[in-house]
Design goal:
heterodimer, A: 256 residues, alpha/beta, TIM Barrel, 5-stranded parallel β-sheet, 36% helix, B: 66 residues, mainly beta, Ubiquitin-like (UB roll), 11% helix
Chain lengths: 256, 66
């Protein structure tokens, strides 16, 4: 398959991963999946609130998508491992997004616990995609621990602030021989396109699509942006210069 | 007897089964994951799983998340 993203033995043609939180109605999810082309879809595992009947979100994820449970709510590696094992035992497949967070204000991940969880779960045969604060030595440790990809944040979860960690992500893309997937903070399609132009392997978007005025139309916009950014990266981005360089020939017949 | 359901202590009948606990809460078993003392119990085993004093039951489901 031309330009497939290979992760965990799967060939992905779409480089947009979709999160399912914050949608005003679950019925939007299959429509957004279709409009965006997303093939990897994240879900979370929560205690049932018996006073408030919710629907099973997995029923809204179209067959053929890879369901990627996250370990949100975990504050330690042990808790993340427990959630991952439960999700797999419940039939969710082998993919897991490790998310270990102890900071309630910025929801920044605990890289140390994330490495520990990655090591344990990769050894158990999970396809592990850890969400992390971009840091080169941590990314190297995650690769050594058996991560299938590394998912640095662009800015805090749900903030729509874009690629604030751009320079660090650039270094990860350059130095880490695994797919780098920008997760969290991408607020607009142009930012998704920029991440892809930089050479990110994929982006994971949730809030910017789920809370848009028209989530289905925004899903399509993100799908197009990710494709455009990827195509630009593959085309070879030209460098920049400080002064103008004429695009039209100036040699002319008007003056001597 | 007392058991812990989703972190809260609750009184249930002696020899109550997981099946009965889930049914008594009006939950649709289709979308639910049940863990007993930190181990997943598959749907088909709920009727035969008899609860004991101080058992810890977690009733979970997949929800939207990024």
């Amino acid at each position: 398959m031309a330009d497939a993203l290979k992760i965990g033995g799967r060939d992905l043609t779409s480089r947009l991963f979709l999160g399912t939180g914050k949608f005003s109605a679950n019925r939007l999810i299959p429509e957004v999946v279709k409009a965006s082309g997303a093939q990897v879809v994240t879900v979370a595992l929560r205690r049932v609130d018996t006073d408030y009947q919710e629907e099973n979100i997995a029923a809204y994820v179209p067959a053929g998508c890879i369901l990627m449970p996250n370990t949100s709510g975990a504050r330690t590696a042990e808790e993340a491992v427990r959630i991952a094992r439960l999700a797999r035992a419940a039939g969710c497949g082998d993919w897991v997004k490790i998310e270990v967070i102890r900071d309630n204000r910025y929801l920044l991940p605990d890289n140390y616990e994330t490495i520990k969880a990655t090591e344990i779960l990769a050894a158990e045969g999970f396809v592990v995609l850890p969400y992390m604060s971009p840091d080169l030595s941590v990314a190297k440790r995650l690769a050594e621990a058996g991560a299938a990809a590394v998912m640095p944040l662009g800015s805090p979860i749900g903030s729509n602030r874009g690629l604030r960690t751009r320079e660090l992500i650039r270094i990860l893309i350059e130095e880490i021989p695994l797919p780098i997937i920008v997760d969290a903070g991408i607020g607009r399609p142009s930012e998704a396109a920029e991440a892809m132009e930089m050479g990110a392997a994929a982006v994971l978007v949730n809030t910017a699509i789920a809370t848009a005025g028209d989530p289905v139309a925004m899903g399509r916009a993100f799908g197009l942006a990710v494709e455009a950014g990827r195509a630009a990266y593959l085309a070879g981005m030209p460098g920049t210069v400080d002064y103008a360089r004429a695009s039209s020939p100036l040699t002319g017949f008007l003056r001597d | 007897m007392k058991i812990i359901i989703n972190g809260k202590e609750e009184a249930v009948a002696e020899n109550a089964t997981l099946e009965e606990i889930v049914a008594s809460r009006g939950l649709n078993p289709g979308g639910i994951i049940v863990e007993l003392n930190y181990a997943l119990v598959k749907r088909e085993s709920w009727p035969d799983t008899i609860l004991r004093e101080n058992d810890r039951v977690e009733i979970l489901r997949f929800v939207g998340g990024g």
